[in-house]
Amino acid sequence: MVWRAAGGVRIQSRQGVDLTRFFPDLVSPLADALPARTVLDGELLVWDTRRGRSSFSLLQRRLTAGHRLPEIVRKHPAHLVAFDLLRDGRGVELLAQPLATRRTKLEQLLRGAPAQIAVCPQTQDREVALGWLGELGVAGVEGLVIKPAASLYRPAAGLWVKVRARDTAEFVIGGVTGALDRPVTLLLGRFDERGTFRFVGQTHPVKTEDRQDVARALRGLPFRGPDAGHPWPCPLPAAWTGNFAERQPVAFIPVEPTLVAEVEVDTALDGPFGRVRHRGRLVRVRLDLHPQDVTITRRSPAGCRRR
């Protein structure tokens, strides 16, 4: 949320946290583009020019940068993609007006805005939307949000539908939460070019009907004791999961990284090792694959097959 008051600009997370100090490079462009009393709804992003896609990890890095924030701002400038106008420059609340009306006002407001501020693309053409869903994942776009043109703005009402672009990919299981004979979630990794086993993500809870098969495949694979040499710290640091809403370390049972799993994931990948930002869903255990076949490639960090 962006609040433009007479005294300046406030950038606020959806949890109500003031993020303005972490995005000083957006304050002036927003102040120039927005009249006082304007309120926008949108999304912050940082573009990774080296990888040619948006980067959630570069965005998060600002929150922990400390004295290095000016350097990070200079190297990786932020952008705001606006997708709704909640109050116009006259101070008129627009929440009770239909999306189509709010969208027209938003486009008029941001016509000629600085390059760091963009209006989110929108279409009523189904084929165009399907094209976006299939093509924009390479740029880090997670999917589409479907909104009725006549819908009013209802905070946290769940009236919109998010459709993610999903792939299946192979990962090596490096640990489980729960118990070995009844795993709850799987911790996933891949081997990099030097043979180091890198943590890249976690699954949603394994379906009840699949837990027995997973437990049977994991039998005999646990590491014994804290000094057994597993490449990941136990518990897993909260920062590794990329979930900044949950700051607690993740307790897990380390296992020998020899079992491959096929997992359905979305296209939101971050960092040089293709860490999966959101949890995936187990499709099946792949006893036919060797873990060294599941490697991180710099050219195609996802290593995924589009579904």
Automatic annotation (TrEMBL):
Pfam families: DNA_ligase_A_M. PROSITE patterns: DNA_LIGASE_A3. The keyword Ligase applies. One of its GO terms (molecular function) is ligase activity. Keywords: Ligase. It catalyses: ATP + (deoxyribonucleotide)n-3'-hydroxyl + 5'-phospho-(deoxyribonucleotide)m = (deoxyribonucleotide)n+m + AMP + diphosphate. Residues 80-195 form the ATP-dependent DNA ligase family profile domain. It comes from the Bacteria. Belongs to the ATP-dependent DNA ligase family. PANTHER family: DNA LIGASE 1, DNA LIGASE 1/3 FAMILY MEMBER. This is ATP-dependent DNA ligase.
